[in-house]
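Attaching the record inline, Q. Sequence:
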Amino acid sequence: MKVSIITIVYNNRQTIADAIDSVLNQTYPNIEYIVIDGKSTDGTVEVVKSYGSKITTFISEKDNGLYDAINKGISHATGDVVGLLHSDDIFNSTSAIQAVAEAFIKQKSDSVYADLVYVNRADPNKVIRNWKSGIYKKNNFLYGWMPPHPTFYVKREVYKQLGLYNTTFKSAADYELMLRYLFKEGISTAYLPQVLVRMRVGGKSNVTLRNRWRANKEDSRAWQVNGLKPYYYTRYLKPLRKLVQFL
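Structure, as predicted:
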C-alpha cells in the first residue's frame, strides 16, 4: 500500500524542516511525499529544495488559500491512501504511518483517524491539549464530534468519488469534508487509538476569537450545503468539546 503525504506551506521557514524530517524519518517504506508551497518569500523554498529528490513532488506557485493548495496536492497524489502533515506539525513517532497502513489493511476501511495532541510552538514536547477521538458513531456529529483533521487518512478513490475540499469555506472545509464523507455518505472508518500527530498551537481557525466565531458559523453552513439538519445546539457543542481537551 502506497501512502501519499501532503504538506502545505507558505512562509514557514521556522518549522518546515521539522515537518519534512518527520515524514522522511518514517519507517514505513512506501511513502510518496508531496510539498505544495504558496510561493513563499522567506526562505521556505530554499529549505525544501535542500532535500532534493527525497521529496517526491515539490510545487511552488500562487494558490487560492489552504484548501486550494490541499486539493492541488491530492490531484498530484498517486498513493492508495492520502493524508496530510501541516508545516507546523510532526508525527508522534517514526512508526506513525506504519500504524495507519496496518489499520487500513486490518479493518478494510475507507478511512482511518487517530488521536492528536496540541503542543507548545517552541517546545513540541510540551503538551497543551489532548484530543482523544474515540470510536466513531454516526450520531456523534450531532453532538459536536469530529475526528482531528491532521489524523484523517482517506483512500484516494474516495476523493475521486465524493469530491475534494470545498474552497468556498475559509476555515471549516476540513469539517465539511469529514461531515460529508462520514455522516452524509457513510464511508467506512477505523479508529486508531494512539496519538498520531503533534500539532503546534496557532491553527488558522483558532488564532483569534473572531476567527473561531467565523469557523463556528462555517460549521453550520457545512450542514446546510450538504442538505443536512443538525440539532439546534450542535454548533455550540463543537467548541465546548474542546474544553475537556485541556484536562
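The chain has one domain: 3-246. The first strand starts at residue 3 and ends at 9.

More tomorrow.
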